[in-house]
Design a protein that fits this description.
Blueprint: H1 2-19, E1 33-34, H2 44-61, H3 64-76, E2 87-93, E3 96-102, E4 107-115, H4 129-139, E5 141-146, H5 156-172, E6 173-174, E7 177-178, E8 183-189, H6 191-206, E9 213-217, H7 229-232, H8 240-244, H9 252-263, E10 285-290, H10 296-308, E11 313-318, H11 333-359
Parallel strand pairs: 1-11, 4-5, 4-8, 8-9, 9-10, 10-11
Antiparallel strand pairs: 2-3, 3-5, 6-7
Length: 360
Amino acid sequence: MIWIFWVLVLLVLITVFHLRGQDLSQYDSPSSQSLDMGREPSDGLAAVVASFDVGMGPVRRAPRSQRLALMREYMESLSENQDFHTSFTPVDAAGVVAEWVLAPGVDSDRRVLYIHGGAFVMGSPRSHRNITSRFSEIAGAAVLAIDYRLMPENPRMAGIEDCRTAYQWMLQNGPEGPGQAGKIYVGGDSAGGNLALSLIAWVRDQKLQRPNAVVALCPATDFTFGSPSLKHNMETDAMLGPLFKDMARVPRPLLWWFVWFQNRMSPRNPLLSPVFGELSGLPPTLVHASETELLFDDARRYVNRAADAGSPTKLQSWAQMVHVWHMFHPQLTEACDAWDEIGKFIAEVDRVAARAGTKA
């Protein structure tokens, strides 16, 4: 029986020293620029929340074996029956399925790599056309929206590799064909925000042409699940709360082991959890999050750590919004406001770069 004791000791040691991330509570201090403090949410919010209940109803009632397919179907429906003024052109980005999203009059030398959200298991360029269309409009850029490989059919690393491949391809290819990019931007939401933040650290380490700016919408940054908002905002997150309520009942060490078995990587590995990575030398980054969503502290801790490391990173928050409310433009006034802030951020980055170029 002594071997059982030593196995348990080994499991405890692995859990504590390999799976558990460092304590990030020192990065919980307020850092966000709250943009709707004291304002009542717009009238459209109630309709958006009600649409979640209608759309996710069949998912909650279905057998567990059918839920993923139904969730994917629901997410794909989010862009249906919308009138876009942009064009969508399928493209093979060095083996990564993607589409170019072009608003009228964009400069094709300005390029955005956009990485969609969906908990790494759902979503596509089609599901996120409301976001990519608006991004193309406000940035005046061609958006390359990628259809990276999803879990569980593929390992997490496959999606990470697709982001890297597509980024390198976009540096040398635009919507008209081969051609060096002028300005480069990276964007992503939720799981896509996680992949975007992981990508920019890799770009820095590989010494590739770095993005001029990065926009991460409600990103997941910590797969050790250490953010206080994962617990405190469970009842106020209308989108993610119902989906992840069962997870909140599972002890964190068991979740760490689940992440390890699922990904064959420690949950504190920066490939999974960008908040634990080396965050110096990163491009200007704007992060948006809702103060009532599960991932609020994921965003806040990442921004505080990156700023502490000297990277120009800013967090803007909204008090009562749903997760990735940007998708509901123009239905939500707050979505319109958020896109205006993104446009200001990109314009300011461009102005700073132009001044630096003039001085040089």
